[in-house]
Amino acid sequence: MTTTSAPRLYASPSFQTASTTLRSTVLAQASGAVAPSSNGGDPSSAYVLGIVPVTGSGGYAVSTSAPSNAIHVVDGETLRVVGSLSGSGGGGAVKVAHEGGVTCLKSAMGAGSTGGLISCGKEGSVVIWDTRSSGGSGKVGVKNGWIVAAGSELQGDDAIISYWDPRKPSAPLRIHTSTHSDDITVVSFAPPGYTVNPAPSPDANGDPEDAEMASASQPSEAPIGSSNRLLLLTGSTDGLLNVSDANDEDEDEAVILTANWGCSIAQAGWVGEKGEGVWAGSDMETFSTWSSELDPILDFDIREPGVHGGDAQWVSDYLVGCHSSSSAGSSTTKLRVFSGSNEGDVALISTPHPLTKPVPRRGQNASSNSSWIAPWYLQSAWTHQHVGVVRALYYDERHKLVVTGGEDAKLHVWRDATAGVLYEGDGDVDMDVDDAVPPEDEVARRRVKSSRKREMGVDDEDDEMDGKRRRK
Length: 472
Known about the structure:
Blueprint: E1 9-18, E2 23-26, H1 27-30, E3 48-54, E4 59-64, E5 71-74, E6 81-85, E7 102-107, E8 116-121, E9 126-130, E10 148-155, E11 158-164, E12 174-180, E13 184-189, E14 195-196, H2 208-217, E15 224-225, E16 231-236, E17 240-245, H3 251-254, E18 255-260, E19 265-271, E20 277-282, E21 286-291, E22 296-301, E23 306-309, E24 312-315, E25 318-326, E26 333-340, E27 346-350, E28 359-360, E29 371-372, E30 376-382, E31 390-396, E32 401-406, E33 410-415, H4 439-456, H5 460-470
Parallel strand pairs: 1-30
Antiparallel strand pairs: 2-33, 3-4, 4-5, 5-6, 7-8, 8-9, 10-11, 11-12, 13-16, 14-15, 16-17, 17-18, 19-20, 20-21, 21-22, 23-24, 25-26, 26-27, 27-30, 28-29, 31-32, 32-33
């Protein structure tokens, strides 16, 4: 995939910076029952790794790093820890959800009951929790046909995707072992309504070129949709994004689409309610979007776009995560991109055209990096509450709230200043300009970051060490 120029970032006319939270807590202080863990560590030193809603309760589930390796259930109004989920071997003072660490936490949406969570861990287990039961160990009632998918780290020569019927957890329904060649970092089922046209199969002689020619004169295969197949998006440190048929026993036929980004994929997800596209973030802090058939669209360094002027000051250091939705009555696909700074701030940036391919400038060929890219807008920023990297974020679209957690063990709830409405431009911005960052802007970028670090008492050496620590 050819890297595109970074887009211009402009401050929205309604841009606001919030430095006051609605609710805040330090997880170790939110529960009087939480004491130092069995390995002698202090739970207050545990990073917040994941935040998801607990369906039907208005609360949140929060996963933490070592030393606690816990999953806490938090009251949405008070942020008090009302329970901690305990797996096998979790008899210590801090209830351990997964020995070795929690690697993923998700809400069990559509599971047929409220309070359901799904988690997996370093020890290789996948657990379905019922947060309403004592200890959270009760079984969640699940609908017939519900499937759980999980991806593994590289084990020998194989990175395994396993599929289970949660009513029969003793053995997986099937496994796929050759979809990826390195650690699997993303598994996400396609949303309802997603369809894709399958690539033409090789002809009888196995010649793809002949197959392409044949497809032009023969009826194409029927589109594959999530309504008649269970389609799964996966990503890996091998650089591949794949869409596979989870119900296909033949792994050679299961992979429907594949794309090679060429860099280690850290996170990814669907864009739009019907899977109109895909977004992805890499370990190198690059960000990309792809069509529904995994054709490349955008690919740029998330750290390059910045705003320097007036009250709007922002430079991204890393991607926190994304949230996608389609507004009722609007054909525009909304993609909220949340980026963070090493100082602990978070910003919401977006573009009205996340799935629009860059257009070559006048006099440039299609392979040139000097292309026009739709502008992006700085919508909101939340500052001065976290210290260090923000590792987890949940966007509550219904209540217009942003919930963040970081390496400081703090959990914050913020008001979404956009009230769910994203500024999409008014046509007054001159968009046919050189996308390269002028030297004076780069000087301003460094000046703004240095000023903020001085306020916090952080020197350049500390900042460099933080950057190394953040991606271990």
